[in-house]
Design brief:
Elements lengths: L4 H26 L2 H8 L3 H29 L1 H15 L9 H33 L4 H22 L5 H25 L7 H7 L6 H35 L4 H20 L1 H8 L1 H21 L3 H15 L2 H42 L2 H22 L1
């Protein structure tokens, strides 16, 4: 049976593998950015413009992938985008100019954005079929894949050239796609029970549904803003403002990412106990308190603790927002929430930079707490 328990279990494993592969490949690319900068002889500003290709490709594709999933099915689109992602990650080391790098990163970003919408749409359908809030476990796989990809990338950076390293990522990505993709293509998309469809709302969203999807997208934006800020500014805060060593400063984001992974791994149990609205309220409040501690504390160890608490608080907000948006409006809802969330990740680092110039970096980092509090208020209002 396409929707039997064994088939659903296989689908869950396959979708989890795609989430983990996505995080692994993207993190592997990120750790080689300094080498690619040297290879293309790019200035910092020119590299920044080239890296916008990833963002532009992702945002443009996210808005289109919802329609593709409606027409061809999220399983097929997931496999196609995964193949493109695996192939395109090998292209940056082959470039020797900034325009060429920007062009291939546009393709890489398009594959990344499309894959995120497609496998989140597949996960939303599977959550409805399983009748359990397992969405956080998929995002935990993404976070874990990213941590492993970054760790292994750092270890092999001295031994492998960027070309060999990223080509290895291509091989791994294609192998995962070949194995997990067979399961996706062999099984039909699970059809939720009738009562679940009634709760989820219409597949063709009306105006009220679109407003609700936008609100869930705002929750995703608030969460992703914090993730982007922590990735780009957490280490600098520890080093510049608190005088931490380079190793301790690097551990700041590790604490945040590890706590987020743990939070997502336990997210299903939390959602079953608290429900979605209370999870958002509890998570947003926890993240706000943690970030206030992390940004304003005068001691390094307290700051590290604050970063970890922030990761725990933010962990399940994005999965809940995307899952609810998808339940309301199908792939187009996932696309809207994902695009807003990714926009928040893009907005965070430059916004904090401007605020840091105007005031100070610790003050600027409190904006993460403010947006986490906004997510809390939205969650409370949505109950």
């Amino acid at each position: 049976m396409p929707g039997g328990p064994v088939a659903l279990t296989r689908l869950r494993i396959a979708i989890t593998a795609f989430f983990a592969m996505d995080g692994f490949v993207f993190a592997g690319w990120v750790v080689r950015i300094p080498d690619i900068k040297h290879q293309t002889h790019a200035s910092v500003g020119a590299l920044g413009l080239a890296l916008l290709g990833v963002s532009a490709g992702a945002v443009i594709t996210m808005t289109l992938t919802g329609r593709l999933c409606r027409r061809y099915g999220s399983h097929r689109v997931t496999v196609a985008c995964a193949i493109l992602l695996a192939l395109s990650v090998a292209l940056p080391p082959l470039t020797h100019s900034v325009p060429a790098l920007g062009a291939v990163l546009l393709v890489f970003g398009a594959a990344y954005g499309g894959l995120n919408v497609a496998f989140n749409s597949a996960a939303v359908d599977l959550v409805a079929a399983l009748r359990r809030p397992v969405m956080p476990t998929f995002h935990a796989a993404f976070s874990l894949g990213g941590m492993i990809g970054a760790g292994l990338g750092g270890l092999v950076a001295g031994a492998l050239s960027p070309t060999r390293h990223l080509l290895t990522l291509t091989v791994i990505g294609l192998l995962v796609t070949a194995v997990a993709g067979r399961t996706l293509l062999r099984h039909d998309i699970p059809v939720p029970h009738t009562e679940d469809r009634a709760e989820a709302g219409p597949r063709r969203p009306d105006r009220r549904t679109r407003r609700m999807v936008f609100v869930f997208g705002l929750i995703a934006l608030c969460t992703a803003y914090g993730e982007g800020a922590m990735a780009d500014w957490g280490a600098l805060h520890l080093r510049q403002d608190l005088g931490a060593s380079a190793g301790v400063a690097a551990a700041g984001y590790t604490c945040f990412a590890l706590a987020m992974t743990v939070g997502r791994a336990s997210g299903t149990r939390l959602l079953e106990r608290l429900g979605r609205s209370r999870t958002v309220v509890f998570g947003g409040g926890t993240a706000a308190a943690g970030m206030l501690l992390g940004s304003l504390a005068p001691w390094v160890w307290v700051t590290l603790l604050g970063f970890a608490v922030t990761g725990l608080g933010l962990a399940n907000l994005f999965p809940v927002a995307v899952e609810r948006a998808g339940a309301l409006a199908g792939p187009s809802g996932v696309a809207t929430a994902s695009t807003l969330g990714y926009g928040g990740m893009l907005l965070g680092p430059p916004a904090i930079g401007f605020m840091a110039d105007w005031a100070s970096l610790p003050t600027a980092l409190t904006s993460v707490a403010v947006l986490a509090a906004v997510a809390t208020l939205i969650g409370a209002a949505m109950r």
